[in-house]
Amino acid sequence: MDTKNMDFQSMMASFMQNAQKLQENLKGAYQEISEKHKDRTVVGMAGGDLVKVEVTLKLQVKNIELKPAVFEESPEVMSELIAAATNQAIAQAQEMVKKEMMAVTQKMGLPKDMPMPFSG
C-alpha cells in the first residue's frame, strides 16, 4: 500500500472516532439537561385562559385545566382549544431544551445552529 492511502485511511479513522465521541458527548449533554429539568414544566393556554395545559420538558402532559366556561363550547371547539394549548406548551418546552443544548454546543465550540437529532 502506498503511504498516501494509509494516511487517508488513518485520517478517516480518526475523523470517525472524533465524530462518535462528539455524538456521545452531545447525547450525554441532552440526557443531563433532560434529567436536570425533568420536573420543570411550561404552560400553554388557549381561549384566553379557558384551557391551560402543563407539559414537562420531557414533553409529557402533566396537567390539563379547563375553566367551567369552556364546557359551554361545542365539543369541536373544546377539542381545538385543548390541542392549541397542548401544542403551545410543547413548542415552549422544545424551545427551552433547544436553548440549553445551544449553550452546551457553543461551549464545545460547535455552531449554535447545529441540528439536534435526538429531541424529545
Automatic annotation (TrEMBL):
HAMAP family: DNA_YbaB_EbfC (MF_00274). Residues 12-39 form a coiled coil. It is found in: Cytoplasm, Nucleoid. This is Nucleoid-associated protein CC99x_002280. Keywords: Coiled coil, Cytoplasm, DNA-binding. One of its GO terms (cellular component) is bacterial nucleoid. Gene3D superfamilies: Nucleoid-associated protein YbaB-like domain. The keyword Lipid biosynthesis does not apply.
